[in-house]
Amino acid sequence: MIGIIDYKAGNARSVQYALTRLGIEAQLVTTPNEIEGVERIVLPGVGSARATMDFLHDSGCGAALVRRVLDEGAPFLGICVGLQVLFDHSEEGDVTCLGWLPGAVKRFPSGGLRVPQIGWNEVSVRTTDDRFAGYDEPRRHFYFVNSYYAAPADEVVLAATANYGEDFAAAVVSGNIMATQFHIEKSGPDGLELLRRWATC
Amino acid sequence: MGDVLTKRLIACFDVVDGRVTKARQFEDNIDVGPADEIARDVYAGGIDEIIFYDILASAQRRAPDIAAVRRVAEEVFVPFAVGGGVRSLDDMLDVLDAGAEKVSVDSMAVRHPEIIEEGAREFGRQAVLLSMQVKRREVTNDLPSGYEIMIDGARTATGIDAVEWAKRGTGLGAGEVCVNSIDGDGTHAGYDLAITKAIAEAVDVPVIASGGAGAVQHLVDAFTIADASAAIISSLLYSPRMERNSTVRELKDGLVAAGVSVRPTS
């Protein structure tokens, strides 16, 4: 069973619909106990980094995630803000994040391009991870909605990049952790296929 | 303003009792079909985004039809915005929890602009789509752009200048603006490029052109002349008033031929 963390500011339901369409069972989870009871964990997000971190602290879900994902190696998927909070710090609300991956989350520079980035952007695959196989020929477009982006300190975690004035992390992979800045659940058939590969690999 | 993203084509559903309708200048709605079926069709055809307006909710002073929203959300895996009747943060949460990721605010935002600010704070700017119905007027001191904001399904004039409202709404936190021309709605005569361009120049968030598309060239004009980031193409796809409807693929092929970058249909 896949658990999708629902903190009432995110897109948990959309992720559940997408998994349901793929024939994969998933439930929304809101407590540390529920996080203990699922095999794979999705942390979605459309809210702010601060709101997400506040929820993880206040609910105890943050500690449960550390135990399940870092200690036990449960497969984890972060989406959008769920990618950003994996890093050390976010400029959005000047908030300390989970720090599972070294690096910072910054705001796209204003001037030049419209912020937030809202739309379909072309993604370059940088990883040999099987789940991204074929996604570079031809390059695919994924749906992004973000004003902030992650700049990993260690490029080895960069699974895919996109450019919006700056090159930024479109997807990261590190062991049992995968995360996408794009909305994998709203990126049409290409997104659904990548979600299927994460959920079934 | 530069744009590295592909231009988005959006199907906008004017929904009555769970069914998509098509109006002309906000009147005489014709039934097109069940919203979830149309959604499935346009998703399979390669649409980039869907907007769902519960067009009677506001006048009937009720929240949008969440059951109908959910039926559509279960069918489409592209961005999905919902509007009509959204009056509070609770209504916004209900819409997001039903599977949308953007909430469109319109009349309510004119009467209570703080809903924009509260929504942006709670759910992020990107979740708040400011939809505005604009009507062409004489240029006056009170309407320097020559366009007035109308509310309540285009029935009530507000005296508010369209460009000023777009600037105020984005200043309050709207992450995107949809400029819907009442004069152009359902006419197939082309978007109102003047007001779309004026607003795209005045704000730094993406602008959606709406109202009047009847040919690929109208889309090209919206993207290249008016600097829109996205365009609503409902009539082209399924208006019974069009002699012949187009597929998303035909429209995207036409755009590519004109040098406009779009997400390829698979």
How would you characterize this protein structure?
The complex is a heterodimer of chains A (201) and B (266). With 201 residues, chain A is of the alpha/beta class. Chain A has six helices and 13 strands. In chain A, the strands form two sheets. In chain A, strands 2-1-3-4-13-12-11-8-9 form a nine-stranded mixed sheet. Chain A has a four-stranded mixed sheet with strand order 6-5-7-10, with helices on one face. The radius of gyration of chain A is 15 Å and the shape is globular. Chain B is α/β, with parallel strands linked by helices. Chain B has an eight-stranded parallel beta barrel, surrounded by six helices. In chain B, strand 2 and strand 3 form a beta hairpin. Chain B is globular. The chains are: A alpha/beta (201), B alpha/beta (266). Chains A and B meet through helix 1, strand 8, strand 9 and helix 6 of A and helix 3 of B.
The largest β sheet of chain B comes out as: 8 strands, parallel, barrel
Percentage of residues in strands of chain A: 25-35%
Overall form of chain A: globular
Give a count of the beta strands of chain A, DSSP E runs of length 2 or more: 13
CA radius of gyration of chain A:
15 Å
Based on DSSP secondary structure assignment, what is the total number of beta strands of chain B?
A: 12
Q: Which sequence of SSEs, written as H and E, runs from N to C of chain B? A: EEEHEHEHEHHEEEHEHEHEHH
Largest interface: A-B, 46 and 39 residues
Average of per-residue pLDDT values of chain B: 94
N- to C-terminal distance of chain A: 14 Å
Short description:
Chain A is α/β, with parallel strands linked by helices.
